[in-house]
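Worked Example 4.2. Consider the chain below.
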Amino acid sequence: MAGLLSEPVPMEQALSATFRRWAREPFHTLKANCAFSVLDYAEAVTGRRADPDPRQLFQALKIDGPMLGACFSVIEGLGWARVDEERRGDVGLVQLADGLTACICAAPQVGQSLPSWVARRPRGFASLPVTAEMVWRAPCLRS
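Applying the procedure from the previous section yields the following structure tokens:
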């Protein structure tokens, strides 16, 4: 279930604002981690607030087991749908050295090059050429 947040923000505007915020604001395990930071972006693009707000329910950073299920229900509750091929602006779960991480697609796969996913890190963000385990697209971005 999702509550009304505001008018949806155009995807390119939301991407720019999100990456600028990640570059300047400190990472915080319980408040500004990768999952909650991607959720902020997902809410801005749809103009909806996740309800119940997982930021109030979860105190963990790792996205495995119950947290993985929570990602499904929260993102899909905002109207995002699973897709097979990523596009710029999609959100996804990417396998990194420290486990599954919530990311935003900055660029889709082109030819032999892997897609570029951006993850929030303790200092700013990292752009990673990887294939996502799962990808979701906002309802306003679906073709």
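The CA atoms of residues 27 and 123 lie 7 Å apart. The beta strands are 2-4, 48-50, 81-83, 91-96, 99-107, 116-120, 125-129, 134-137. Compare this with Example 4.1 before moving on.
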